[in-house]
Queue: 4 jobs
Job 1
Amino acid sequence: MKTIVVIAVFFVSIVTQNARAEQSSHALSLNEAISIAAEKNLDVRAEFYNPAQFEADVNRNRAIYDPLFSAQTAYADNAAAQSLNGEAVSNSQSFMINSSISQLVWSGGTAALNFNNSYNSNNSSTLFQHYWQTGLGLSFNQPLLKNRGREVTEANIRISQLSKYASMERLRTKLLTTVAQVRNEYFKLYSLREQLTSKNVSLELARTILKETKARVAAGVLPAMEILNAEFGVVTREKDLIDAEKAVSDQQDVLRLLLQLDPKVDVTIKDVPSRERLDFDQDVAIKRAFSRPELMEQRRNLELTELQTRVFNNKLKPDLSLNASVNLTAVDRGYSRDLEKIGTLDTPGWSIGLFFSYPLGNRAAENDYRKSRLKVEQSNLQINSLEQTIANDVRSALRGISAGYKQIDVADRGVLFAEERLRAFIRKNEVGLATTKDVFDVENDRSVAKYNQISALVSYNNAITTLWQTTGELLDRQGIRLDENEVNRLYKAMQ
């Protein structure tokens, strides 16, 4: 009974010391750890840059609607043509300044406004020897078959958008994996700290047994051999305690790295794993899992491939385009008079026509289309395969939860039996019916039972994490929201 009292007193002192240690260190709650990881984890932060880069691609491809201004100037001096007798026939010089502004429209057509000016000088006797020629025109070119329509015109914009959405789903997958890892590593630290406490209790018990064994050997009640057994038990448990302390320190480093915490911070666990029974519906869980981010990424990629297929199908058509233009022209010796004639609208002109071209065989466009169709079929098969894999993962996770909950009850009963057995052997040892080695063997069984209890509780919570990760609901469960505006802000911050 004296030994039992000593154990109880020591256990209370260990708990008190741990409580004081927690007060002097950083007690980290599970939700706090997850929030810190979502904000500071380097892998998550690095993944944010991918959708931001696709946002740059989206805006780059929207530049097709930026008006295009062009200007051209040139001077020409034509050498005189020679007659049979070597005399000059004609000589001319010209200087021109042309400008235009064009705009692509959603239908695939291009509208352009042209303003052309030229000054000409020559030695002809039948024409103006010095005159200005000015032209103002509006033209429009519209594809009628190939390259016609908004979808084809904005194909690269839409491809960039879909690529960005797929990248956002990859970001969600990375965030989902990181949150799951934080939960597992958090509970692992809890497990190792609990094992450390158990090792401390075992070592203190061994020291108490050694002290009492020496006293009983000195009194002639026990043989001297029992001291060696007791000392071996103490040394074994000291070694176990050192290993447990190292494991706790190593696990703290793992958690600190995930959360990007100061290496000097002593991380302690504030929350304990849940023992609450989790009710579930398999069909509902599988249906929810079909919205997992990696599956959504595959669907985005399928949508992108289908868009490319429609564009390639359009490329199979002949190139038929409508060209229309209206213009005003004027010729006069003075430039100001030239402009006045343009303003009177007295010299209008117009034209309309069709342009047709088609590569015989058209093998390039045909094979682009065939390849794109193959990609669509391949993507559908990959999505179907992933859905079946996800359904199996959900069923496996649900079985893991069911088995894990049952293991908690078994482990709890194992600890009760092991502790009762240890008390019985301590009493036997006190009356000489059990050796010191017997007591240590039974105490080892108690340590194993305690380890199984801790492991069962942590494994059950890890199984819950696995289920929530498999169904894709872990982020919602932990209150983590991924806002696309954060990605856009990162893009805008790059000046």
Job 2
Amino acid sequence: MSEPDPHDTRAGIGSVETAARLLHALLEGGEALRLSDLARRAGMPSAKAHRYLVSLIRAGLATQDPASGRYDLGPFALRIGLHGIARFEPLRLAEQTLTALAAQAGESAALSVWAGRAPAIVRVAEARHSLAGQVPLGHACPLTWSATGLVFAAFEPAARTAPLLQDELRQNRRVARPGAPHSAAALEARLAAVRAAGVAAVDGAQGGAAAVAAPVRDAQGALAMVLTIFGPPGRLDARPDGPLAGLVAQSATRLSGLLGGLTDNR
């Protein structure tokens, strides 16, 4: 028997492609899914989907909430996504800008991209002092009260962010988060200010770090990533019209130019 032709596009393993359909359905679902909904999206019987999900969970590619029974992407899927993003050429290009910004500001800097359902930090340049802000790679940024998240909320398509914003607003009301918007009107006023200024700034009163963030655009003018300076509350100049905000905005504009994007972040 002859060996299979490695260039034959018909060659492959059907079970892998079936598992990929489930992963694709989880990714496109936008939230954790019931087995019946997941099977329908993947175009297979529920019993078959369940068998594959057992293996995907064992591999860390999927997870199941013990309370609701719903399925979602697992920790290994997240790691694959983050490593794929990290190899994205624009991010390699952005590292020099990130390092230079951190050195110039004397505070830690981060780059974030939209990672499926929320902004995630994919690069960090830490300041070299004992009070430097620290954040782990992959950290998901709140959309309604972090500087990074507010930029994404202001400039990402509403169809992508609207359900997540509603969830956060409910949580803000439930925990009475100080300094965070609790209504759609309050949030829209804040996002309008971000669009007008071209930067988002928070002073850390909401419970996180003080930070200033600005959008980086691609060649089509769409939001490609967000550049952020962050540090301990009270230490960082978090005024949207302050010199630090100007520095972050200028760095984001230069990076947009390198990516072939717009030269005006507003």
Job 3
Amino acid sequence: MRILLVEDEPRLAQVIAKGLREHSYAVDLAGDGNAALYQTSINDYDLILLDVLLPGRDGFEVCRELRARGDATPVMMLTARATIDDRITGLDAGADDYLTKPFSFRELLARVRALLRREPQLHHDRVQLDDLLLDGTSHRVSRAAQEIDLTAKEYALLEYLVRRAGQLVTRADIAAHVWDESFDPFSNTIEVYVNRLRKKIDDQHLVKLIHTRRGEGYILDPRSTPEKL
């Protein structure tokens, strides 16, 4: 999952970003409203964490602009302005949630998960595909009741494939949602991680879940045909 964090206080932005990355999220940063609007125009995000008090265009303006141009990405506003009127203004501007500072990072994570659960494939924290079980709260993964140890990035890749189960996902799709803006599109990083994930998920099982369509992308589906070589 790729998140845009819009926060003008550098230290706070780094603390939040570090915590999110430790929980398998890819995070891009923007320090003001104009930068946020630019980032959202060139990248595809799964969630936007948007501070209200920003230099130049504030969070309310940014949210209104996003909705006016048809961007339906979930938006959670983060702000010290905790009055009822401020919350109403934020929600009326198009925000999906509103969290006041200071906040518990655990609560932020829970609200992030709640917004991302609106995806059709992730209505629940626990998702099962064939004998593969993914727990979105604990980030534990098991297959045939055997727990699988994944790194944060391996988990993020698997979670994205589960969200798109049965669909062909391209390399560009994966880069846009699992990695952040520092990703090198000319590297073989995605192929390396898919191979690592395949070894952990599929090697000991007769039914293979991760399939490659040569020159096209990948499919996570127990009913898929074997790889096209």
Job 4
Amino acid sequence: MRPVYITRLSKYLPNDPVTNDEMESVLGMVNARPSKARGLVLRNNGIKSRYYAFRDGKPTHTNAELAANAIRALFDESTPIERLEVLTAGTTSPEQILPSHAAMVHGELGIHPVEIISATGACCSSIQAMKYAYMAVGSGQAEVAVSVGSERLSSWMHASRFEPEAENLKRLEENPFIAFEKDFLRWMLSDGAAAALMQGEPNGEGISLRIEWLETTSFANELETCMYAGAVKNEDKSLTGWNDLDIEDWTNKSVFSLKQDTRLLGENIVPKGGVFLKKLMDKHNLSGDMVDYYLPHMSSEFFKNQIKQYHTTFGMDIPEEKWFYNLPRVGNVGSASPFLMLEELFHSGRLKKGERILVMVPESARFSYAYIYLTVV
């Protein structure tokens, strides 16, 4: 493997930022009732504003458009998009089952033929896609590659998607509020895209980020599903997918909504990330004093102190002044979030050559994790 450098980073955040007080006016109220979960969730997650590709009950962009807009911003006359050879994309929220999301992004770009790879999942999907691009450049099979993470979750979370279930609950004379596991994520997730350009040579001027290592893993062999869509979870913890459910259930049970088991999340998301990080510390001789900037992708600031405690437990002390994240300003944008943090830091003017960056990305779907270690050059 030859060295691989992130030479450019870009983002695309749709429309104007939406404050906490404005959220329900954009996403709507299920059954014309304010959400019971909204206040509790927003008090804990630390998010103050986010972006939605959705206005007046209608989408303003597709997921593919968000991704394509971020990718276009990577290129200019000095590095034209015609040099692109490999396009990799990760998302939780494609508009369709087929074609793949990367194919739709490629079509939206309207450029020359390129190799494409789609990674499907949640927050780690963009990093899993990035690893393919990294290996393509590192092996010498490509000179210029792009990885993009993008989400358009607002349409999934609009109140209209839950009205049939609320009406069904009324008919059954039950509480017409949708379950917390579904309502919870309506106030956690948002839209946007961010992309990274990878090359075999660093920038001639300015800084680049050399990828020292990029590692991912899954604990699905040990843990049940935590976050899911297009399925229902059974009492035995297994999932029944949408294609094995009655069509009426698709709407009456909001089968295609995102759902999360918050108990399972709280018990496992930080500890399992710590297990993997300890393994990487041993493998790469990594210690806290070898990190100048720590970029933790957190779905909520609720987990911040727990992360700190676990770091201390296995000797990975990273002072808070080294932490860098933008969750309060841009929200939790799933697969785009790791690149959004890197993009903001990259363009902040703070980075100095020789500094080292550790990026942490957890995914609660069935507990996957990614870590990236970078050097500023």
